[in-house]
Amino acid sequence: MSDDQTCKVAELLKGERFGFLTTIRRDGTLTSRPMTLQEVEFDGDLWFFAERGSHPVEHVLASPQVNVGVGSGGSWVSLTGDAEVVEDAAKKRELWNGAVEAWFPQGPDDGSVVLIKVHADSAEYWDAPGGRLSTAFSFVKAKVTGERIDAGENEKVDLP
Hints:
Elements: H1 3-13, E1 18-24, E2 30-36, E3 45-51, H2 55-62, E4 65-72, E5 75-86, H3 89-95, H4 98-103, E6 113-127, H5 131-145, E7 153-158
Antiparallel strand pairs: 1-2, 1-4, 3-6, 4-5, 5-6, 6-7
């Protein structure tokens, strides 16, 4: 992957607060839930707080393959990789913030709090500059001219 592609994925993730973490249930079916992203600088890893024994934690322990979907406005990113449950007290304190405290009022040293670390090995992104309005305009233009819609940039990226 080029540095430009890494930067593009990081740029699209910057400022995003929520992602849909998709895990594999024990019966092999997929399930997704919204989770709060904990680091603002994407380096190939995504971090989430979770409760020990919760479904996301159980699913990751049983099958580490996950997907995280993030999107807003005119940009969407789908990241695929492996997840692990991390019990690093220093990392929990580093990532701790007021939003997490609303879910876990006992603080970062609460033994029921763990981290889920997702190491993304690939990403696919769609970037439609101008957001929904621009996409709607491109759709109408395509219908009128008979040309294919220009829905923005779509790339598949292998991450280090």
